[in-house]
Structure to design on (335 residues):
């Protein structure tokens, strides 16, 4: 399945949408927020407490949310239930128990998935969404993590009803919640450098986790900055597979302006001096050293016959304003 350029984290949701077209396996909904994707606390639980839990749908944008789902097994013979994505959300029929009713009439449901964890039923919690007028809409969104319900509980609980549900898959406008506000996404395409024999020797950034990464491209978010809206930069260190040519590229954000810098590393040290230099720039950048900002092309001669050019343009990435950056290698033969 080819990635749509600039699609970012939505690519994993699109993959799941393709999967559910050809399977009735409920384990695809057995994700739960992981600490590696949402800091040290459960983002969805925090959002639920703050009234922002509508940002969770049946599908997750993070592959890491399946890291605790290794013991989930599907049991399609117990509950025959197909599902499909519609314009109203995921349409699926599940056994449900009404856990509580809010003051405004909205329901909190416990819904049984057709899968098990350690021979126990697995369930998800659903909360009814509001319509435009603030009344119960009949559609639901997920909140909280997976629930282990006990294998026999369904048969003993006569309050459970087989219910046709529409589970909202939030729009990209707000699906990542309040924590994403202020982050600027960037897509960096360096496929042209790879084809010319360069490789990413090291990627340094404020986070260990990028939104998307392959051999030719990285998509990442700049973290929230300090009171001056300064974000820590990302630094790509490139090295040629055969020649000694080495350089690094710094990409940073201040306010909403993009900052880029290309620096040549001519040392033969291992680790190369450019890594140390890049780390120093990363630290000094945070305490206020001047970094030039460009929103147009930036280029640097990195060898006697090669020039690296960064083409930059504003773009929507996962429906948020960001930057698309492409590194292009140009020949500059010196006679």
């Amino acid at each position: 399945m080819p990635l749509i350029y600039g699609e970012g984290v939505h690519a994993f949701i699109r993959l799941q949408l393709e999967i559910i077209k050809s399977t009735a396996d409920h384990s695809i909904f057995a994700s739960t927020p992981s600490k590696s994707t949402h800091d040290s606390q459960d983002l969805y639980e925090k959002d639920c407490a703050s009234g922002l839990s509508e940002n969770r749908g049946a599908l997750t944008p993070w592959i890491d949310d399946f890291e605790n789902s290794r013991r989930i097994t599907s049991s399609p013979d117990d509950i025959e239930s197909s599902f499909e994505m519609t314009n109203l959300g995921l349409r699926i029929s599940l056994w449900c128990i009404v856990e509580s009713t809010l003051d405004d009439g909205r329901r909190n449901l416990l819904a049984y998935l057709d899968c098990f964890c350690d021979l126990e039923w697995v369930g998800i919690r659903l909360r009814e969404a509001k319509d435009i007028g603030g009344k119960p809409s009949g559609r639901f969104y997920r909140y909280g993590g997976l629930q282990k319900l006990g294998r026999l509980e369904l048969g003993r609980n006569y309050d459970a009803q087989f219910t046709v549900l529409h589970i909202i898959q939030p729009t990209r406008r707000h699906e990542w919640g309040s924590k994403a506000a202020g982050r600027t996404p960037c897509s960096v395409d360096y496929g042209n450098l790879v084809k010319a024999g360069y490789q990413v020797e090291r990627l340094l950034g404020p986070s260990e986790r990028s939104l998307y990464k392959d051999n030719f491209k990285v998509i990442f978010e700049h973290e929230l900055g300090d009171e001056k809206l300064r974000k820590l930069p990302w630094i790509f260190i490139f090295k040629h597979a055969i020649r000694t040519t080495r350089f690094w590229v710094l990409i940073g954000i201040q306010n909403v302006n993009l900052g880029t810098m290309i620096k040549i590393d001519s040392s033969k040290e291992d680790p190369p001096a450019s890594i140390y230099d890049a780390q120093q720039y990363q630290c000094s950048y945070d305490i206020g050293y001047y970094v030039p900002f460009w929103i147009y092309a930036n280029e640097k001669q990195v060898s006697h016959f090669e020039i690296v050019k960064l083409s930059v343009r504003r773009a929507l990435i996962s429906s948020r304003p960001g930057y698309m950056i492409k590194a292009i290698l140009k020949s500059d033969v010196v006679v």
Q: What stands out?
A: The radius of gyration is 24 Å. Residues 273-286 form the longest helix (14 residues).
